[in-house]
Specification:
Oligomer: single chain
Structural class: alpha/beta
Shape: globular
Radius of gyration: 23 Å
Number of helices: 17
Strand order of the largest sheet: 3-2-1-4-16
Distance between the termini: 50 Å
Helix content: 25-40%
Length: 462
């Protein structure tokens, strides 16, 4: 029994910090089979209980061991219509892999890497198997938003025989997968491929359609039997400190959308210019912060810093992402809090004033509370800052839908097990319910909502 995981080949830090190509290169068939052979095929697999979309993990891994990759991807797609995405961006280390028996004996099986391998293998074959669909029911479902939750709902319901139409506000489908995650971590061609698969199942996708403006939820309810709202959490947070209106101060949403969806890094081949900054600070410690910092490096910044008010051990980003950032040259200023942005005579950011912090007693999140150190102010010379401290849902749909209850945080009130909202025939899931979370949790919420919607459409019970 090989107790050591097989490393996945990737670009060297020196090379990858100068391009937007995918960093991780994926397993070869030989590496995939070798890694799959490490699986113990437990009689009561704990890994499966850690998957929000209930993938039969031992079964698809056993297919890899046999070299039957076609059966493996078929098994995966019984539960997951986005395997190439999930294999790249899901936090497997805190979900399925965290429950692997081998974790206590050496290193857990690389479940995510094997998932990615099967999805990429299928794409390389040039053929995608379309699973059988149930007989058409004549029922129509509208899905608002084409992110992970919406795509999962659409994929599940179309296979159950219902007609499904996705309405997307942007000009490309994919939601946060297309505008929020950089090319070097999730190539946009892969997102397009996954969206195309859902279209091949029969889902209709309409872009440039802003529900709440183009048509309201109430108007859609006149045409559709049920509606699922999966519009995500795209409203950025700021810190409300002096100087946030200076040029050179970005929200992570704006910065990454310009780079990813609009492909600003390809200007002038793309039509979205981005100012190239020399010294960039990114405020925050999550995956979005790492994505922003690593993007700034690739845009040619001489110096990129992460500013985070807690210590390194409290970073919410995946360990893999923070490690990649450090390898590429991102500087981490831990236990540091920005308190003021200082501009020049032309209104451009020139400096960031910060305070040093120390860790106190745990707060409501269970992490040590950052406490300001008196008289510890200092400044950093920076010409850009990206604020990556979180997001909340866009209020457009709730504000234009009477009776759709929201929480104090602006998220929709919905049953966590079914996705039912306070409006009849309206379900919701993903970040618009939970606040900003992971791709796989949004997909899990979409799966639960699809079951509930199907039950309603077939029995009339809500």
């Amino acid at each position: 029994m090989d107790l050591n995981r097989h490393d996945m080949p990737k670009q060297s830090p020196e090379m990858r910090r100068h391009n937007f190509n995918e960093v991780a290169l994926g397993y070869t068939p030989e590496l995939a089979v070798a890694e799959a052979r490490r699986c113990l095929q437990c009689k009561k697999p704990k890994c499966r209980t850690g998957c929000p979309v209930e993938i039969d993990i031992p079964d698809f891994i056993s297919c890899i061991v046999k070299g039957d990759f076609k059966s493996g991807i078929k098994k995966l797609k019984e539960k997951n219509c986005l395997p190439a995405v999930c294999g790249r961006v899901c936090p497997q280390e805190s979900q399925c892999e965290s429950r692997c028996i081998l974790k206590n004996k050496g290193a857990e099986v690389a479940i995510g890497r094997l998932e990615r391998f099967l999805a990429d293998w299928e794409a390389a074959q040039g053929e995608v198997d379309i699973p059988p669909k149930a007989a058409r029911t004549g029922k129509k479902v509208a899905v608002v938003g084409s992110g992970p939750a919406g795509i999962t709902v659409a994929g599940d319901l179309i296979l159950l025989g219902h007609d499904v139409t996705i309405f997307e506000a942007l000009h490309k489908a994919g939601g946060v997968l297309i505008y929020g995650i950089p090319e070097f971590r999730l190539p946009k061609a892969i997102v397009a491929r996954e969206v195309e698969y859902v279209k091949k199942l029969g889902v209709r996708v309409i872009t440039d359609y802003v529900v709440g403006k183009t048509r309201s939820i109430d108007e859609l309810l006149k045409e559709f039997d049920a509606i699922f709202i999966g519009t995500g959490a795209g409203l950025p947070w700021f810190m409300s400190i002096p100087g946030e209106n200076l040029n050179g101060v970005y929200s992570a949403n704006e910065y990454l959308t310009r780079m990813n969806l609009m492909q600003g890094y390809r200007f002038p081949m793309s039509s979205t210019p981005i100012k190239k900054h020399a010294k960039v600070a990114v405020v925050g410690g999550g995956n979005v912060a790492m994505d922003s910092a690593r993007t700034a490096l690739r845009m040619g910044a001489d110096e990129v810093r992460i500013i985070y008010r807690r210590s390194h051990s409290e970073l919410p980003a995946r360990a893999e992402e923070s490690e990649n950032a450090e390898e590429e040259g991102v500087i981490f200023n831990m236990l540091t809090l920005p308190v003021r942005y200082i501009g020049d005579e032309n209104g451009w950011l020139r400096e960031i004033e910060c305070l040093k912090m120390e860790l106190g007693e745990p707060d409501a999140s269970g992490r040590p509370r950052p406490v300001e150190m008196p008289n510890s102010n200092f400044t950093m010379e920076m010409d850009a800052v990206v604020c990556a401290i979180g997001n909340s849902p866009n209020p457009l749909v709730p504000s234009t839908t009477p009776g759709l209850e929201t929480t104090r945080r602006g998220t929709l009130v919905a049953d966590p097990e079914t996705g039912k909202t306070t409006r009849d025939r309206v379900w919701a899931g993903g970040d618009i319910v939970t606040g900003a979370a992971t791709v796989i949790l949004a997909m899990g919420a979409g799966r639960k909502a699809a079951r509930s919607i199907h039950e309603f459409l077939t029995t009339g019970k809500q």
